[in-house]
Design a protein that fits this description.
The chain is mostly beta strands and about 725 residues long. The protein has 4 domains: about 350 residues, Methylamine Dehydrogenase, Chain H (7 Propeller); about 120 residues, Ferric Hydroxamate Uptake Protein, Chain A, domain 1 (Beta Complex), CATH 2.170.130; about 120 residues, Ferric Hydroxamate Uptake Protein, Chain A, domain 1, CATH 2.170.130; about 100 residues, Immunoglobulin-like. About 5% of the residues lie in helices and about 45% in strands. The protein contains 3 helices and 56 strands. Strand 10 and strand 11 form a beta hairpin.
């Protein structure tokens, strides 16, 4: 966010399998490498979750701002189908109820290809959800139907069916070109992969390599049944069985190495020279891809069927256990970065078999609680109210005032709501944001900002926002797009002319204003008294001059919030706008009452109102109708009187009843006085309390109650207590 940017040439060295920023298939690409060439999600914060009711065990895929995934096997009010979800909001765009299952879709040229419980392979228009064609490939589908995830490769669609371990090849119009049966049941979820014109798939305990015409190039016999999808990288094919994890040469099918692994359907992810894979015993492994040597392992909270996804030195996976948990680990050492557990209610099971998919700096994953979750690097997102009034900010070397409608002011206000720290530095280039939520610059990375998706060419403290602007503070290298940022704070600006809007409680009485060598006493229950109370509540300053006091008995407010009167422009007030007419007397003389709303507004001309003025302060007035300033009572003897003195102020000229009463062990004494009281004047009212001869001695707790005489005794206005009257 520095105002001047030094353009620095950087060389980024990354060992990756292939670039798949627009990946739209299971495990990211044709090789099924699980590597996503995009920004990782460094915090486990949920942006949204979309409820699809039934189990969501397929992996979501992303395309053109939308997420596609199917569900299967639901509960009451289940809504089965293939869903299209808005990736930004989580809103469901469409649902095709005919297609359901655990197959992960593949997308090509705006068409979705997906297997189903019915044993059919479907082709669906990704924009509308309308079925283009379908093909029955499994005539006697078992519980899983076609759970294999189709692969679109070089203009053909490949998918495996489990009953006889058959690989089917179709053109994009649904015509079957050829098929190859292994005559051995495959794992339900095992899917084909491809590399360099070769197609890899499993049948029983055998891995096959075919060319694109269905001819077998080689096959490899494993020790037991192959459970997962083969992944290709580093010139090798990697796959797991119930007992082993294998690495064989992609060209000739010769074994390079194998190691012990309690395998599942978790497909290995390949990146940074390593192979990452989950196991049935809840251990997540990182193996050296060349030697098979264990690099590190991490103990999760249960079985791992989820296939890991890798992005920016982080690996993500989930556990298929009653308390399903999504994990993010450091790819270098296996240290935990974040995790999110579903924490189901007692008696429920929220497993996660789905595999994570990463795109547009978001992570998408399905769960058995019926939801698709979207995790995001957004640290905070929300609306802030901004005004044109200046605000004071803390710098690393002092304080400074900035305009209240700037991008920096929006961040400061957001930090108060979101309760995160912001560090601002004053440099020779101006103010810039050094850190947000403790995240500081590192290397070539730092904080920048964008308004409505565009990065401004002026400093954050100088950019003045308009109502409705969207501001993104994002962390990355100098050429990072906000959509690829590691961390984001998204702020929706509501820019208003209201500098302050709040309620004040006013008491009868006065306050003093000193102007030069003169001192003026002002009633609290005036328009100026309301401004004074608001200044105390909100912490802003105002100034007053007395140039019209001698001739008009009027004090003039000449600045609020540091905004001064200039020429014909200046501060005015209006009580109960627009219902009541504009006052025609000084603010120090205009009396207000409970429920009034006092507007102070900066008028640029005589035609301005609180609605059109550039600066407005809105003060809602709450007035205490009666204030009991003090209450004292004497002791007394039976057959005599106790004397009470009540000092009180009222907000309205009227007759009042003042009652002093109390009890001791069930016996009561009471006295009443009536008086006509003038508004805003403190008056002491004596009350005589007769003490009957027959009451017992004791300490009587006495309270004061004040009523309007015309509504006595039905409407108590104020009470106060208690004082002890000793009777003997």
């Amino acid at each position: 966010m520095k105002i001047k940017v030094a353009f620095v040439a950087m060389l980024l060295i990354l060992i990756s399998i292939t670039s798949i920023a627009t990946a739209t298939t299971f495990h990211g690409n044709a090789e099924r490498s699980g590597y996503f060439d995009c920004t990782g999600v460094k915090i486990g914060k949920i942006l949204w979750k979309a409820n699809l009711t039934g189990l969501v065990d397929a992996s979501p895929i992303y395309w053109n701002g939308y997420v596609y995934v199917s569900n299967w096997y639901g509960w009451k009010n289940w809504s089965p189908g293939l869903y299209c979800i808005n990736a930004t909001t989580g809103e469901i765009v469409w649902r095709n109820a005919e297609i359901t299952g655990a197959s992960t879709a593949a997308l090509s040229n705006g068409l979705l290809f997906i297997g189903s419980l019915s044993g059919k392979l479907y082709c669906v228009n990704a924009t509308t959800g309308i079925i283009v064609w379908n093909k029955t490939l499994e005539n006697n589908p078992e519980w899983y139907g076609i759970a294999s995830s189709p692969l679109v490769y070089n203009g053909k669609v490949y998918v495996t069916t489990f009953s006889n371990g058959c690989l089917h090849a179709l053109d994009l119009n649904g015509n079957e070109l050829w098929s190859y049966s292994t005559n051995a049941k495959s794992s339900y979820y095992s899917s084909p992969s491809a590399y360099n014109g070769k197609i890899f798939f499993a049948g029983g305990n055998k891995l096959y390599c075919l060319n694109e015409y269905g001819n077998v190039l080689w096959s490899f016999n494993a020790s037991d049944k192959i459970l997962n999808t083969p992944s290709v990288g580093y010139g090798n094919v990697y796959f797991a069985t119930k007992e082993r994890f294998y690495c064989v040469n992609v060209s000739n099918g010769l074994e390079n190495w194998n190691t012990s692994l309690n395998g599942t359907i978790s497909t290995a992810a390949l990146a940074y020279g390593n192979a990452y894979i989950g196991s049935k015993d809840g251990i997540f492994y990182c193996f050296n891809a060349t030697t098979g040597k264990e690099v590190w392992k991490f103990k999760a909270n249960g079985k791992i069927d989820s296939s890991p996804a890798i992005a920016e030195n982080m690996v993500y996976f989930a556990t298929n256990t009653p308390n399903g948990t999504i994990y993010a680990l450091n790819t270098s050492d296996g240290s935990l970065i974040w995790s999110y557990s579903l924490n189901p209610p007692k008696g429920f099971y929220y497993n996660v078999m789905s595999s994570p998919f990463i795109a547009g700096n978001k992570l998408f994953i399905g769960t058995d609680d019926g939801n698709v979750y979207c995790f995001t690097p957004i640290l905070w997102s929300g609306k802030v109210n901004l005004s044109l009034a200046s605000i004071t900010i803390n710098l690393t070397d002092g304080i400074k005032q900035i305009k209240g409608n700037t991008a920096l002011a929006a961040l400061i206000e957001a930090s108060k709501i979101g309760k995160f720290d912001v560090s601002v530095v004053n440099s020779t280039w101006g103010l810039y944001v050094e850190s947000i939520a403790g995240i500081k610059p590192k290397g070539f990375k730092g904080w920048m900002y964008a308004v409505n998706g565009i990065i401004p060419n002026i400093g954050v403290a100088d950019y003045e926002l308009k109502d409705g602007n969207v501001i993104e503070f994002f962390y990355g290298s100098w050429n990072t797009d906000p959509n690829d940022a590691e961390y984001i704070v998204t702020i929706y600006a509501n820019v208003t002319n209201v500098l302050w809007d709040g309620e004040v409680k006013l008491k009868q009485g006065t306050f003093k204003i000193s102007i030069n060598n003169s001192e003026y006493e002002v009633n609290n229950l005036t328009a100026l008294g309301a401004l004074n109370a608001a200044s105390v509540a909100a912490g802003f300053n105002y100034t007053v001059n007395d140039k019209w006091y001698e001739s008009w008995n009027s004090l003039l407010v000449d600045s609020i919030f540091g905004i001064k009167n200039e020429g014909m422009a200046g501060w005015m007030y209006w009580v109960n706008y627009p219902k009541d007419p504009m006052p025609m007397t000084g603010a120090n003389s205009y009396k207000i009452k409970d429920g009034d709303i006092v507007y102070w507004y900066y008028s640029t001309n005589m035609n301005d109102t609180p609605l059109t003025a550039p600066y407005v302060i809105k003060v809602k007035v709450k007035v205490e109708n009666v204030v009991i300033n003090s209450f004292n009572v004497s002791n007394a003897k039976r057959g005599k009187y106790a004397e009470a003195f009540v000092n009180l102020s009222v907000d309205e000229d009227d007759w009042y009843a003042i009652v002093v009463s109390g009890i001791d062990n069930g016996e009561a004494i009471a006295g009443i006085s009536t008086a006509y009281l003038n508004a805003n004047e403190a008056t002491t009212i004596p009350v005589l309390i007769p003490i009957p001869q027959q009451i017992p001695n004791g300490d009587y707790k006495l309270y004061v109650g004040v009523y309007k005489l015309k509504t006595f005794p039905n409407e108590l206005i104020k009470w106060y207590g208690y004082k002890i009257c000793e009777v003997n």
